[in-house]
Amino acid sequence: MATKVIVDPITRIEGHLKIEVEVANGKVVNAWSSGTLFRGIEIILKGRDPRDAQHITQRICGVCPLSHGIASVLCLDDAFKAQVPPNGRIIRNLIQGANWLMSHILHFYTLAALDYVKGPDTPPFVPRFKGDYRLPPKVNEVLVQHYLEALDARRKAHEMLAVFGAKAPHPTVFIPGGVTEAVTAERIEKFRTYLEELIRFIDQTYVPDVKIVAEYYSDYWDIGRGCRNMLAYGAFPQADGQAGRRDLFFKPGVYTNGKFAPFDPQKIVEDVKYSWYANDTSRLPPARGETVPQPRKAGAYSWLKAPRYNGLPHEVGPLARSWINQAPEIVSLGERAFSVLGRHYARALECSRLAHAMLDWLNQLKVGEPVYLPAQVPEEAHGMGLTEAARGALGHWIEIKNYRIANYQAVVPTTWNASPRDDRGQPGPIEQALIGTPVQDPENPIEITRVVRSFDPCLACAIHLLELRVHSRRGSSSFRI
User: Which of this chain's residues are annotated to bind Mg(2+) (predicted)?
Assistant: First the structure.
């Protein structure tokens, strides 16, 4: 007989996620991933000036606002037919890269590490699940100290971002055609000082710490396999204009059922059979997507839609990017790469690779040269902006009519990874990764949280508007958060 285990909410993630599993004979035999807040930014954007989008969409998330800003401004570049000068492209890359470094460090130390490292018996380290902390006391003590050092590293990454982004989070410099912040020698050197400090932390602390955890929790190379289908849109253009889409630092691609293929955005649709949205909005591509909430829909269990590529669930994120780009350290792992530790290891190695590449990009900036080229709002247009957030593939789609936003859709990494079942009943990537996970004690299901957190879910991105209705004798009112 199966035992039902519910973890609600999953803590140390962004947003509100409920995980429900059935455990039989010490293993998960079925799983459901439920996002429990309503997504509504697309509705807020309707009727606004298109140039508002790159600012409003950054409010989707406080951790990865930069990638939403990039996806949105790329979407507007496409709709406006805007050209971006080299300095504008490079500054965008540096700002987005700074956010990635912060996010990767945040994920391992602040969100995931405490599944393996036992902190002091004081908040924020308690309460916690009991048992299965394996690090020797002295090793554990070192990693707790690194947890504290990571807070400082994250602060430096934010300050580095603000050198060209003006502020962090939610920088204000993105515009169609480039950015608004000029290149100066002082800014280049200030950015470089921060970046060199972060590279030392990443290479000498972050990557070694992930290897230490992998040494003592080696069974997690075989836990959390998931769907084994990988998807990446690609990110960080290395050339200008249309050539930039073809020449990306992280290449786009698809890995499905053991075979690599080129990425085709036309093969993306979103299913809603098990989502709280109207059934007639199912199977739509994002460019024609609709956000029609139906909170009492029978059979549904999540506010996340179910994105599918060519009809199948696909995992997105650092592991997907590393596998598709054939990173030697990840490919050499073979099947073990598709695991809890594979996701952590891929993220750490990617963080180092990106940080070193940013030094080269910084050297390509030209003091005094343009950072943007003017672009006009079209009366009618469609646009698509594809990039990668630290958590995975991120796409924005816009339709403009009469100079205003007629429709806007965002499909974010956690919508891919934490999606519910689709119209064909196929579980989402996190649901599939949970199936087969050993659970020693259903009262302390730490194994479940380790699998879920390896994906770095962000429900703030995937579902980020809640309407509360307050009733009293004087009447009722509502507000949104």
Answer: 42, 464
